[in-house]
Amino acid sequence: MNQLTADDLIYGYLNGIFPMADADGTLYWYSPDPRAIIPLETYKPAKSLRPVLNKKTFEIRINADFEQVMRRCAVPRSDDDSTWISEEIISAYTTLNQMGLAHSVETYIDDRLVGGLYGVALGAAFFGESMFYEVDNASKVAFHYLIMILREQRFELLDTQFINDNVRRFGAIEIPKNQYLKLLKQALKRKARFSEPMLEHLFNFHAED
């Protein structure tokens, strides 16, 4: 297979598939059935997270260091773990970020990157890829602001691909693949701009919900 490109990624997401690398770097394309999504309208921050949001423990930045977020996400979680984020994947998604189609939401303490997530935005769909944290709650706060951005910009679909405990705590559910493809087709018909909103406004309005 030729080197993975940003165009390959765009084609894949438009058709409901996404790549992951094996331990040896070999790329495979996936289209899970069922598919995991997070309904944007049902998300609520956990009660334990609200004091963290109110204290403004973290500084939030959008697309400030996309590649570094990917590299932190690629670090194996344990000695027995391996990563699906290869150098080839990092290169292709970084190009997609430079094109304005891949985005990162990052959390900082004292100007140090301590958590974040990244994904791809096409039409009114956002495809969440991975997240990391080095300080408690850092990725949860990044995810909270991702949801606020997607709501403010009127996105319709948040794809999280596979169900697991990490996304389940944010309200992820599984739906049949054919239903997902219908939602995807509908979301791609609309244009939504992934842009940094008035974060202070979003914070003040939602942290007390």
Could you describe the 3D structure shown?
Helices cover 35% and strands 24% of the residues. It has a single domain (6-202), classed as Aminopeptidase (3-Layer(aba) Sandwich), CATH 3.40.630. It contains eight helices and nine strands. It is globular and about 45 Å long. It is of the alpha+beta class. Helix 3 (66-73) packs antiparallel against helix 4 and helix 5 crosses helix 8 (199-206). The strands form two sheets. A seven-stranded mixed beta sheet has the order 4-5-6-7-8-3-9, sandwiched between helices. Strands 1-2 form a two-stranded antiparallel ribbon. It starts with 5 loop residues before the first helix and ends with a helix.
SSE ordering: HEEEHEHHEEEHEHEHH
CATH class category label: Alpha Beta
Q: Helix content range of the residues, please?
A: 25-40%
Distance between the termini: 49 Å
Per DSSP, what share of the residues sits in E-state strands of 2 or more residues?
Answer: 15-25%
Compute the number of helices. 8
Number of strands: 9
User: What is Rg?
Assistant: 16 Å
Total individual domains: 1
SS-derived structural category: alpha+beta
Q: What is the average of the pLDDT values?
A: 90
Secondary structure: elements and pairs:
Layout: H1 6-14, E1 18-21, E2 27-30, E3 35-37, H2 50-55, E4 59-62, H3 66-73, H4 87-98, E5 102-109, E6 112-122, E7 125-133, H5 138-152, E8 157-161, H6 165-168, E9 173-175, H7 177-188, H8 199-206
Parallel strand pairs: 7-8
Antiparallel strand pairs: 1-2, 3-8, 3-9, 4-5, 5-6, 6-7
